[in-house]
Amino acid sequence: MDNVHTACFTSQETRYSHKIVNLKHLHNLSRILVLRVHAESLYDFRKFFITSNGKPCFSMCGRFVFFELKDFIRQLHQYELPFVEEQEIDFSANYNIAPDTDIVVLLGDQSKYTLTLAHWGVIPHWAKALPKVRPINARSETLAIKPYFRHMLHRSHCIIPASGFYEWKQTAQSKKQPYYIHRADGKPMAFAGLWDTWKADASAAPVVSCTIITTDANREMKFVHDRMPVILEPEHWKDWLDAGIPGAGELLLPAKDGALDLYPVSTKVNNPKNSQHDCIDPFVESNEIGELFEDR
Q1: By 3-state DSSP, what share of the chain in percent is helix, strand and coil, each rounded to 5?
Q2: What is the per-residue pLDDT across 203-244, written as a single tens digit (0 to 9) for each?
Q3: For 31-91, where are the alpha helices, taking DSSP H only?
Q4: Is residue 167 among the annotated active site residues?
Q5: CA 49 to CA 93: how far, in whole Å?
Q6: How confident is the model at residue 259 (pLDDT cuts 50, 70, 90)?
């Protein structure tokens, strides 16, 4: 979804109203949807994006699933990737992980690997203030030239473990059908990512944040979308985490054809409040008669 122009925020329990405004100073953009948020108290906001036609949509990859931390740790031991836990991770399975939340990551830092939590939506260390836009994705093709990412490309790589992810396929009448995508062999995924540490001021606690790298779609994903997250094979995890190794960028390729399986799921995943196991249940049309695509 490369027609994204700006970003706003939603929350789990926030009341909001829609307002269309004109922005003359934006190139080729005459109208955007602005969400005027009326919050009764502080909430954990979720990021989504606004397209040029004024309709909200999620960026690729904008939602994912993770319920296999023990299996991921077992693979780290199997592939001889010694790591330390920076903090005790309070992990619980989440079947609808949204942007602007803390997610499990494996950070690479000069051949030292740390399993920790990071904010999904990268904040560059040089930012003087908290950016309004915190990218959840980074295109592999432009990492070396984008100021937001190029300093991380040769310094701070990470892996984001996942059980699968969601993508929305355009259907008739401007509707979008969500699909759940996972490895065909049933093993956990490992998204290639970049990370950075930011501090609001000298006395503030550091914030570790990350972004997921995307690439062209493979054969299976082209049915749904033209992009996909970079999914690293276990034998390549170490090579990616060691950012200084020449040729690490050559790993940022689409998954092999046949490596993924996908199927339609309920539109309940459109709302991040829904994060239980039934989010990945196969779609049954009779269960969704009359259901609207809320929060889209």
Answers
A1: 15, 40, 45
A2: 999 999 999 999 999 999 999 999 999 999 999 999 999 987
A3: 69-78
A4: yes
A5: 25
A6: very high
**Whole-structure pTM over 0.70, yes or no?**
yes
User: Cα–Cα distances in Å, from 39 out to 14, 19, 57, 206, 207?
Assistant: 5, 17, 22, 27, 24
Q: Are 180 and 262 in contact (CB under 8 A)?
A: yes
Q: Give the bridge partners for 187, in sequence order.
A: none
Annotated catalytic residue, options 61, 158, 210, 279? 61
- Residue carrying the six token digits 């994912």: 64
**Which two three-digit tokens encode residue 42?**
């502080």
Q: Is the dihedral of CA 42, 43, 45, 51 positive or negative?
A: negative
Range in 5-9, 59-63, 187-191, 270-274 with the lowest mean pLDDT: 5-9
Q: Which residue has the tokens 């699968």?
A: 164
Catalytic hit among 8, 167, 210, 220: 167
Whether residue 37 contacts residue 163, with contact meaning beta carbons closer than 8 Å, is answered with: no
Q: 61 catalytic, yes or no? A: yes
Handedness of CA 160, 118, 210, 115 (dihedral sign): negative
